[in-house]
Design brief:
Helix content is 32%, strand content 23%. The chain is α/β, with parallel strands linked by helices. The protein has two domains: 126 residues, ornithine cyclodeaminase, domain 1; 165 residues, NAD(P)-binding Rossmann-like Domain (Rossmann fold), CATH 3.40.50. Helix 2 packs across helix 3 and helix 3 crosses helix 4. The model has no long low-confidence stretch (mean pLDDT 97). The structure holds nicotinamide-adenine-dinucleotide.
């Protein structure tokens, strides 16, 4: 029998706080070379969006996430991101579980944005602004709030920001400028145009850039990113499909100027160097984050009420 777990099961199994712990463990295991992650495969279906196949292996399990990013879906009332995660036993190859992957993606994306902020922001940093209050922006805001941080929200669609603020117990920023100048900013937009123009970032700010996770996307002007202390989730992915894709071909940044977040978490590399420094985190979303979350869900699978099990063979 193979468990088929719904979004509701996933959310019941893993709290935002547990997701932060799980994602931290995943980044550290990957930095230590204990977990492996072949490059994400993009299957273009432009102009509407793309599919991604994301495999990873570690802790006795292998996962494959089949996930979409279809930003135009918003206009059709359909989700931008939909996903399914297959989990197998890495010793026998036997299937272990099938998980609804959109809730899992939102949990691990919020966790990565918050983990990067908590690792790289100034210790005395105040409120976090979350820009873009769709599925993954709301998950990011929910995770900041679960970790005890005040959150302000901004969205190009004011009604979406207002609804999200009511749902989460956050407030709506008075203006886009107020949100962009918060001590901590997490951007979770479709990445169609830069939110941060050249010379707009303030000394000491931290920005988790979550939205640009595919070819052509960006949330910050390349020269503005180049003047910050840049961290990323994974160099190979980020330099091909994250914000860094726009800097590398122009020689605006070199590999040795960019630190992977896992290396900071595993104490292999320093994080922020001074209170004035501006830190940025270029996130493209890693399969090891999905593996970390899948393992956290499986820890609780026996306790989940109403979880479906199917005899696959
Ligand atoms: N880095 C990662 O791990 C990761 C994971 C999941 C999704 N993503 C990416 O994050 C982005 C958002 O995903 P989602 O599922 O939350 O999308 P969504 O469609 O649910 O929400 C996007 C939100 O951004 C708002 N928005 C659009 N343009 C804006 C702008 N210029 N300023 C402010 N708000 C704006 C929209 O009104 C909407 O509320 C996508 O590009 C997606 O591919 C990244």
């Amino acid at each position: 029998m193979v468990p088929f777990l719904t979004a509701e099961n996933v959310l019941a199994a893993v709290s935002p706080e547990r997701a932060v712990e799980a994602v931290r463990d995943g980044f550290v295991a990957y930095a230590r070379g204990e977990w492996a992650m072949p490059p994400k495969i993009y299957v273009p279906a432009y102009p509407n969006g793309d599919f991604r196949a994301m495999p990873a292996i570690g802790a006795g399990h292998a996962v494959l996430k089949w996930v979409t990013s279809f930003p135009v879906n918003l206009e059709k009332g359909l989700p931008t991101v939909k996903a399914i995660v297959l989990v197998s036993d890495a010793e026998t190859g036997m299937p272990v579980a099938v998980l609804e992957g959109s809730a899992l993606t939102a949990l691990r994306t919020g966790a990565a944005a918050v983990l990067a902020a908590e690792t790289l922001a100034r210790p005395e940093a105040g409120a976090a602004a979350v820009i873009g209050t769709g599925v993954n922006g709301r998950a990011t805001a929910r995770t900041f709030i679960a970790r005890g941080r005040e959150v302000i929200l901004w969205d190009v669609d004011p009604e979406r920001a207002r609804t999200a603020a009511e749902e989460l117990g956050a407030s709506v920023a008075a203006s886009r400028e107020q949100a962009l100048s918060a001590d901590i900013v997490a951007t979770v937009t479709p990445g169609r145009e830069p939110l941060f123009a050249e010379n707009s970032l303030l000394p000491g700010q931290h920005v988790s850039l979550m939205g640009a996770d595919g070819p052509g996307k960006c949330e910050i002007a390349p020269r503005e990113l180049a003047r910050t202390h840049v961290f990323c989730d994974d160099w190979t992915q980020a330099s091909h499909a994250g914000e860094l894709q726009h800097l590398v071909p122009e020689n605006l940044i070199a590999r040795e100027q960019v630190t992977q977040l896992g290396d900071v978490l595993a104490n292999f590399a320093p994080g922020r160097r001074s209170a004035e420094e501006i830190t940025t985190f270029d996130s493209t979303g890693l399969a090891i984050q999905d593996l970390a979350l899948a393992l956290a869900v499986l820890e609780r699978v026996g306790e989940l009420e109403g979880a479906l099990e199917l005899p696959l063979w």
